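Posting for a labmate who doesn't have an account.
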Amino acid sequence: MKNSLQEPALRIAPSILSADFARLADQVAEVESAGADLLHLDVMDGHFVPNLTFGPVIVKRLRKHSKLFFDAHLMITDPRKYAEPFIKAGANHITFHIETVEHPDELVDHLHSLGVSAGVSLNPTTPVSTIEPILPKIDMVLVMSVWPGFGGQAFIPDVLDKVRELKTRLQPSQRLEIDGGIDSDTVVSATEAGADTIVAGSAVFGEPDPGAALQRLRAVAVPVYEEHRG
């Protein structure tokens, strides 16, 4: 399994939030064979966000069918409590929301001690200043370009200022991810602003051929990334 967080290249991370769970393994296999870099796992608890998705058991079952890097986004009120079960189930990376954690530096250290990379997510109106103390030690920052909870929402363009700011603050080894409302149009704006890891749900799994949809999205985003790289 490749650790895509370490690669200096644009990454596409299909989100299974928009997949057909009745054929989840097959749909993941389609995007994996089409060149997906990561698989984004949107975990929601019905408390921090107004929706419920899945727990570690789904990740454990899916892990048997895929060699992709599992990018677990914990949209839950107690990420420290549930991080280890998701890691044991097969997650390679854990992203938590800064809005839910009182001592994020301790959580980042804990995740690293469990052998995974650590990311922190910002809701659309949460400023970069909230993650200032942990910027040097995190592996990825995830900027939400919709309010978390449901797929298929419209992209919030105001968050691009936050992406641009983070682009100037992060080291080359740190990733800048964006999630929400990504399609063939908004992926251009997001990549121009500095995002290098693109989460796409409906734009991939909402299409008749998810593998082909992923490849079309990459074909649009890669030239933009190459033009603005560095």
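Reply:
Got it, the structure tokens are right above this. The chain has a mean pLDDT of 94.
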